[in-house]
TrEMBL record:
Cited PROSITE patterns: G_PROTEIN_RECEP_F3_3, G_PROTEIN_RECEP_F3_4
Membrane topology summary: Multi-pass membrane protein
Protein name (database record): Vomeronasal type-2 receptor 26-like
Organism whose genome encodes this protein: Xenopus tropicalis
GO cellular component: plasma membrane
Major subcellular location class: membrane
GO molecular function: G protein-coupled receptor activity
Keyword Disulfide bond: no
Entry's transmembrane regions: 63-87, 103-121, 133-158, 170-194, 227-245, 257-277, 289-312
Sequence ranges assigned to domain G-protein coupled receptors family 3 profile in this UniProt record: 63-327
Keyword Cell membrane tagged: yes
Alphabetical UniProt keywords: Cell membrane, G-protein coupled receptor, Glycoprotein, Membrane, Receptor, Transducer, Transmembrane, Transmembrane helix
Length: 333
């Protein structure tokens, strides 16, 4: 083979090899797989990364709107009971067991129902801090008011019993100081919580596949547990005192109603803990809202529905003559 023909053949082979190399390189470059960022999700053709949908418990969806409607309805119901008590403020049923504490309890229950609305909607830094603190302070106010009402019943009965050792404490007016002191302890816990490790909004990408869930992180779980534990302590003390005083000859069985309300309150929040820990995403928020609404409704119905029943359907029971005769029958027993 002549030397020129050999060089020409070698040059053609080199060009063919180089062209084949370029084609393979292009194919390899086109088929290279790129991983999408955490906040994006590949499309159905695996060609580009699309933003993941964002979810949170909103008013537009059925669950959020239903919980919001229930909250507003119970708030209006509590307001109607409050107006009824204001209108009938001079009657014996309303005056029994410190009507000022009854007013305060109804107001705190109204705020308790309304605070559940703060848990619905897109979370942000401010709302995550406000809603947890508002929930903790309002419920502490509510439970401490119930505790003050229970102690009031016990002290009123002790004042009529000459053999009671608690008679000396009647003049100290202890129930007046229970509400601000117990509530202030919770306020201090919340201040420590906010200044050390406050709740904040976070993007949870592990709750649901392909979805970003915006939720509130409690920050310090220890302080969050302390806030809930303090409310549980107040409820336990109220339940214990009301249970011990359940057989006192109270005209309207206030301690029995309080005992039932605290049993409902304790049952709701005991079942709340495992439910809260076992749910993810917006279902966690829904569980907390349900616990707020059900515990508040339990207190409202157990304590005030018997009184409203007597005021509206049996007005003869709301008279001094009826109370005097009933007290006489109780002493005869």
């Amino acid at each position: 083979m002549p030397q020129n023909e050999g060089a020409h053949l070698l040059g053609n082979s080199y060009c063919a090899f180089f062209s084949l190399y370029n084609i393979v390189s292009v194919i390899l470059d086109d088929s290279e797989c790129l991983k999408c960022p955490e906040d994006k999700w590949p499309d159905s053709r695996k060609e580009e990364c699309l933003p993941k949908p964002i979810k949170f418990l909103s008013y537009e969806e059925t669950l959020g709107s239903t919980l919001a409607c229930i909250s507003v309805l119970f708030c209006l119901l509590t307001l109607s009971v409050f107006c009824l008590f204001i209108i009938k403020r001079k009657t014996p049923i309303v005056k029994a067991n410190n009507r000022d504490l009854s007013y305060l309890l109804l107001i705190s229950l109204m705020f308790g129902f309304m605070c559940s609305l703060a848990f619905i909607g897109r979370p942000n830094q401010i709302m995550c801090m406000i809603r947890q603190v508002m929930f903790a302070v309002i419920f502490s106010l509510c439970v401490s008011t119930i505790l003050a009402k229970t102690i009031t019943v016990v002290m009123i009965f002790s004042a009529t019993n000459p053999d009671s050792k608690l008679k000396k404490l009647v003049g100290l007016r202890i129930p007046i100081y229970i509400v601000p002191v117990c509530t202030m302890v919770q306020v201090i816990l919340c201040i420590v919580w906010l200044t050390t490790d406050a709740p904040f909004a976070e993007y949870n990408m592990a709750a649901e596949i392909g979805i970003i869930v915006i939720e509130c992180n409690e920050g310090s779980r220890v302080l969050f547990a302390s806030v809930l534990g303090y409310m549980g302590l107040l409820a336990s003390i109220s339940l214990f005192v009301a249970f011990l005083a359940r057989k006192l000859p109270d005209t309207f069985n206030e301690t029995k109603f309080i005992t039932f309300s605290m049993l409902v309150f304790a049952s709701v929040w005991v079942t709340f803990i495992p439910a809260y820990l076992s749910t993810k995403g917006k279902q966690t928020v829904a569980v907390e809202i349900f616990a707020i609404l059900s515990s508040s409704a339990g207190c409202l119905l157990c304590i005030f529905s018997p009184k409203c029943y007597s005021i509206l359907l049996h007005p003869e029971m709301n008279s001094r003559q009826y109370i005097t005769g009933r007290n006489a029958r109780n002493r005869g027993k």
